[in-house]
């Protein structure tokens, strides 16, 4: 009989290590900043779930109107595009956690040419600051335009979209997309905290696995 110790190791240990490394907090980060950073992905999650449920699984949340594919290439179905868009949105949102984690101060070892090097403050602060600015301005502007029955381009909303139905579907959409209004301000708070902490400080770690 094969001994238990001779069985191949499960990859779950490596996944747990990667998960723990991604969520580790740099010493000196206040608890409220860490909580703010970890809250950012959850501001994106409801809208991502709504898009996937509506466009990928065709849940009756969009007023029953036609789902336009826009300028998507013919080889990319709308259902797949929405999933990819949602995944990218979550990854970008999770990047805010890097402003409180070691991998936001020292490049991980798996990045060729940058392994173990300190992340320049400007390389993290400038993109995060620009993103925070855009995310703080665009969602409220979109909300104001939609409240007036218009798109960002100034066109009137179609009757088939859930924002124009004025029923329970509008409520569900509003509840799912309202947290996006917090993404920009929360990211701005974490970015400022990162910049203040990194000024004149030494890297918290010498390298990451």
The number of E-state strands comes to 0
Low-confidence stretches: 1-8
Largest sheet: none
Radius of gyration: 21 Å
What sort of overall outline do the alpha carbons produce when their principal axes are compared? Answer: globular
Characterization of this structure:
There is one protein chain. This protein has 209 residues and is an all-alpha fold. It has 6 helices and no strands.
Break the fold down into its secondary structure elements and pairings:
Elements: H1 12-23, H2 31-56, H3 78-94, H4 121-147, H5 168-177, H6 180-198
Key structural traits:
single chain; mainly alpha; 6 helices; 209 residues
Structure at a glance:
This protein is mostly helical. The chain has 6 helices and no strands.
């Amino acid at each position: 009989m094969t001994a238990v110790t001779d069985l191949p190791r499960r990859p779950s240990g490596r996944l747990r290590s990667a998960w723990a490394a991604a969520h580790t907090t740099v010493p000196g980060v206040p608890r409220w900043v860490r909580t703010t950073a970890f809250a950012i992905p959850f501001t994106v999650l409801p809208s991502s779930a709504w898009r996937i449920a509506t466009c990928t699984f065709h849940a009756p949340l969009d007023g029953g109107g036609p789902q336009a594919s826009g300028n998507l290439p013919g080889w990319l179905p709308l259902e797949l595009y929405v999933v990819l868009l949602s995944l990218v949105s979550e990854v970008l949102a999770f990047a805010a956690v890097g402003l409180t984690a070691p991998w936001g101060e020292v490049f991980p070892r798996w990045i060729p040419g940058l392994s173990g090097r300190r992340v320049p403050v400007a390389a993290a602060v400038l993109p995060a600051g620009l993103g925070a600015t855009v995310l703080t301005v665009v969602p409220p502007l979109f909300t104001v335009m939609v409240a007036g029955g218009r798109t960002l381009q100034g066109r009137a909303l179609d009757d088939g979209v859930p924002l124009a139905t004025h029923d329970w579907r509008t409520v569900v959409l509003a509840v799912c997309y309202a947290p996006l209004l917090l993404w920009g301000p929360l990211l701005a708070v974490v970015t400022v905290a990162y910049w203040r902490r990194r000024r004149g400080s030494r890297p918290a770690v010498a390298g990451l696995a």
